[in-house]
Amino acid sequence: MKERSKERIGNEGKEYDDGGSKPQPPVARKQQRSTRNVRGRGREGGGRGRMPVHYVVLPALLFGGVAIVVYFGEMWWAGPGVNKPLPLPRAVSETWRNDSVYLTRLWGTYRSNVYFGIRPRVPRSLLAGIMWYSNDGSGRMEIRHSCQHGDDLRQYGWIRHDGTSYGQQRIVDHEMMLETEFLTMANTSLGETWSARIRGKPLSQRPILTSLIVYLFNEGKGEMAYRTSGGQRSLEEVYGHTPEVCNELYSQFATER
Q: Alpha-carbon distance 175 to 211, whole Å?
């Protein structure tokens, strides 16, 4: 055992004397080699993972250009189709003012979004309708005008209607019932005329103050004025002119209790 250890010491000393460098233990040599290998691999791997910038920029620009071309192509393709007229006869002739059939249906209950509304078959013209509200002492004023599910009416709708010249409707609110009637009379001395009648009936035994409003509104061109009677408290008539419908407009109001 002693001889072998001496020989190893002698050999190590020989290597030290011949090589001129300090001998290192075997474990330190292995660690140094592994560190060198890791560093070498890191340099090689980092260089191999890099990608040129133009490999990313060019596909992005190409994709964006194709998307822009497709978008404007679809807009161009859909544009002419929307503005292209249908090859069908016109629903309303350009000479409708001279058409007797059209004049018999000029005025009607064509305002389907309100409980009761009248208008002619002309855009931006004269509108007529009603609205009402009850003062039950609670401080709230719930106006009934447009058909709303939240109004919770018991009933509303036409009982009779011929689609052209006559209609009768019944509206049942919580505390009152309204009956509306509409009638048109064409080819009279006054021109195209129509009349409407609104009647109310209380449904509750306790007295409730209800306000009924009948309105006329001109959404087009023209002028309107009114006259009152009974000390400026009752509307008597409305007059004026609307070029979209007629040259002269005259409406008369009557109230019965």
A: 12
Which candidate, 171, 187, 188, places its Cα nearest to that of 179? 171
- Burial status of residue 170 (CB atoms within 10 A of its CB: 0-12, 13-18, 19 or more): middle
Burial 122-157 (b: 16+ CB within 10 A, else e): beebbbbbbbbbbebeeeeeeebbeeeeeeeeeebe
Superfamily of domain 96-252: Glycosyl hydrolase family 63, N-terminal domain (2.70.98.110)
Q: Domain residues of the chain, as ranges? A: 55-84, 96-252
Q: Taking the mean position of all CA atoms in its chain, how far away is CA 236?
A: 41
Neighbours of 67 (CB within 10 A): 10
Site of tokens 């069908």:
88
Closest alpha carbon to 165 in 131, 192, 128: 192
Tell the residue number behind the tokens 């460098």, with chain if given: 21
Residue range 8-41, pLDDT digits in tens = 444 444 444 444 555 555 555 555 555 555 444 4
Closest C-alpha to 127, from 16, 251, 248: 251
Cα torsion at 108, 120, 237, 185 (round to 10°)?
A: -50
pLDDT digits (tens, 9 = 90+) for 70-112: 988 887 776 655 566 778 877 766 665 666 666 677 888 999 8
